[in-house]
Specification:
The protein has 295 residues and is of the alpha/beta class. Helix content is 29%, strand content 33%.
Length: 295
C-alpha cells in the first residue's frame, strides 16, 4: 500500500452536475469522475442508466494536512448546494486503479465500441474497437457527452483528416478518430495524470504514431485542423471559443459538448460570435452536443 487518500463523493441532482463539478475540479488536481446510477445487466453485458436520479461525482484528495484543508474548502463552497450530499472514505492508492473495473462493460456508439482492456469482446462487421484502461482519467464511454462525441465522430471523420481533441481525458476520442481514419490527432489535456493515461491508451491501441498529447489547451503552433472535438464544460467551451474557431480550416467543423441543454444558448452564442455556424445538435439525458461549421 503506497499511500492513503480520501475518496470524496458528492451525490448531486442531474441539474447541478456541471456547477458542482467545477467546484470539485478546483480542489482536486486529478480531475472529477462522473458516475451515473446504473443497473448492471450482467457480466460483460453493460448497463442501463437510471435517468433523473442523483449522480455521484468523485474526487481524490491526499490524507494529509493539505487534503484536510481542501476537504474543508469543498464543504464551505458546496454550502450553497444543500441538495448535494458530501461523503468521504479512505482509499489506498493501489486500490483505486482496479476497484472501478467491476462497473464498466463495453459501450457502443455508432460504429465505435469502447471495450475495457480486461473484457473479451467479439467485434461486429465494420465495427471500430477502442481498448480502454481509463485509470484515473475521465473518459470511459459511459457518460452521455462521450457517447454523443463518439457518435458524431463516426459521422464526421473522413480518411486523412487532421483532428483536434480538446479535453482528451483518457484519450478515448483521439483513438476513435484515428481508428475512423484520421491521419493525425493533436490531443490537449491540462491534467498531467490524464495526459499520461491518454498516451498509454494510445500506445495500447497502436495509435501513438498519429496522436500527439499536449499538456495544455491549443494555441499557437498547431496547424489548422479539419475537425475539432471539445468535450469539456459550458464554461470552458465559452472561454475557448476564439481559440477553437481560429484552430479550424476555412472548411473545418467543430463538435462541442460537455454541457447541459440549459447552457445550449450561451455556448452557441459564444461560438457564433467567432464565426461558427450551427449545423446540427444532439441530446441525451439533458446533455448536449453542438455541430458547428467555420466560414
Amino acid at each position: 500500500m503506497t499511500g492513503l487518500w480520501y475518496e470524496i463523493t458528492a451525490e448531486t441532482p442531474p441539474s447541478l452536475v456541471e456547477g458542482v463539478s467545477d467546484i470539485l475540479r478546483g480542489a482536486a488536481p486529478g480531475g472529477v469522475s462522473v458516475e451515473e446510477p446504473v443497473d448492471l445487466l450482467g457480466p460483460e453485458e453493460g448497463f442501463a442508466v437510471r435517468a433523473g436520479e442523483p449522480v455521484a461525482l468523485r474526487v481524490y484528495l491526499p490524507a494529509s494536512e493539505l487534503g484536510a484543508v481542501l476537504t474543508q474548502r469543498l464543504r464551505e463552497e458546496l454550502g450553497d448546494f444543500p441538495e448535494v450530499e458530501l461523503t468521504a472514505r479512505p482509499l489506498y492508492e493501489q486500490d483505486w486503479s482496479v476497484s472501478w473495473r467491476e462497473f464498466f462493460g463495453p459501450v457502443e456508439a455508432g460504429r465505435v465500441a469502447i471495450v475495457p482492456s480486461w473484457v473479451e469482446y467479439e467485434a461486429a462487421a465494420e465495427q471500430v474497437i477502442v481498448r480502454l484502461d481509463p485509470g484515473q482519467a475521465f473518459g470511459t464511454g459511459h457518460h452521455e457527452t462521450t457517447r454523443l462525441c463518439l457518435a458524431a465522430l463516426d459521422e464526421a471523420v473522413q480518411p486523412g483528416m487532421h483532428v483536434l481533441d480538446v479535453g482528451a481525458g483518457s484519450g478515448i476520442l483521439s483513438i476513435a478518430a484515428v481508428k475512423l481514419g484520421a491521419s493525425r490527432v493533436d490531443a490537449f489535456e491540462i491534467d498531467p495524470i490524464a495526459a499520461d493515461v491518454a498516451r498509454s491508451n494510445c500506445a495500447a491501441n497502436g495509435a501513438e504514431a498519429r496522436v500527439t498529447v499536449h499538456g495544455a489547451f491549443p494555441g499557437e503552433g498547431v496547424p489548422a485542423a479539419d475537425l475539432a472535438v471539445a468535450n469539456v464544460s459550458a464554461r470552458a467551451d465559452i472561454e475557448l471559443a476564439p481559440v477553437l474557431a481560429a484552430s479550424l480550416k476555412p472548411s473545418g467543423r467543430l463538435l462541442a459538448s460537455g454541457f447541459l441543454a440549459s447552457d445550449r444558448d450561451d455556448v452557441l452564442a459564444a461560438f457564433a460570435e467567432h464565426g461558427l455556424a450551427p449545423e446540427g445538435e444532439r441530446e441525451e439525458h439533458e446533455w448536449m452536443l453542438l455541430e458547428l461549421a467555420a466560414g
